[in-house]
Amino acid sequence: MKKNILKNIEWSVVICVFMLVGIGCIELYSVTGSSDYTDLIKQLLWFAISIPIVFIIVTIDYHVIGRASKILYIIMIPLLIGVLFTKPINGATSWYNIGAISFQPSEFAKICVILSLSSIIVKVQKDNKYKINNPLQLIKILAVVIIPIGLIIVQPDYGTATAFLLATAVILIVAGLDKKYMIAALLCVLIAVPLLYFFILPNHAKTRIDVFLNPNLDPRGSGYNVLQSKLAIGSGKIFGMGIKNGSQTQLGYLYPQTTDFIYSAIGEEMGFIVAALVIVLYVIMITKAIKIAKTASDDLGSYIASGIAGIFIFHMVENIGMTMGLLPITGVPLPFVSYGGSSLMTNCILIALLLNISGRRNKVMF
Fold this sequence. Notes:
- The protein is mainly α.
- The chain is 69% helix and 2% strand.
- It has a two-stranded antiparallel ribbon.
- Helix 6 (105-124) packs antiparallel against helix 14, helix 8 (158-174) packs antiparallel against helix 14 and helix 11 packs across helix 13 (262-295).
- The longest helix has 34 residues, at 262-295.
- It is globular and about 60 Å long.
- The relative contact order is 0.17.
């Protein structure tokens, strides 16, 4: 790897990732029992596999990767269609099960969509930067996102679909989308939300919203998880109850404690200091991603970095917010901390793209 690329890379992002993975693995060690550390071992293996992949991606110019986005997109769509015919897990057809390995195509679709969307916008803006505001061109751009989002909603996986929408919005805003479209989109959301709630959303999704507004409506059913989560976080106080000593975590009141509610387990066993550190690490990582978007050598790099920042913002805010009862429960994992091979590898690849873009800036930015 060229020395100037290594010099320009935002190494603070790498440090944040390793710290988040470390905190996640410590908590996985705590919650997976005294004898069965299968989840922890798998997580470490996935991370070990991801490291050389990150190195390879950083060495390949992101323009080359951008040009390959068409092929990746063509591969992604059949995978998203095929997963709809798999056996449902927790009510969603989101995983391919190959032996002991579970593969979630919607996670890897994040990479494909960000690359494809960024590439097509650059192509549209080749002659005129404001051509993106042409209605026909905008429809063409949005079609790239609408197809995978539609397939993910059918699974159903509303959390991941929302992550796609936010990443798309961030990229379009950075690309210079006219304010009239933003206002129109906001109005559509305001109109669509009540329509979705009353006429389209399935009963379990409506229940989640109702319970989010008032968990005590069903304290032993749909409101149980969020009430236990808030109790766990509050019980941790400043320094926590100690690894393997959390009452809600160790007695099984908190579930699923390795994925959706791992932040609650961290708050209970490691306390406010470590829980706050997790948030600080995400803020640093996202701030650096925004900086990379601003200082990228061209629009393609800027759009890719912006989309990645949007993905991480949504996952951090939604996961931590739902564990505190501030947002509805959607099953969105906490990047680098929650257990999950597909999620961990996808996030590592997104980080690799950020490092790739930062390393190829014209000069070191301070």
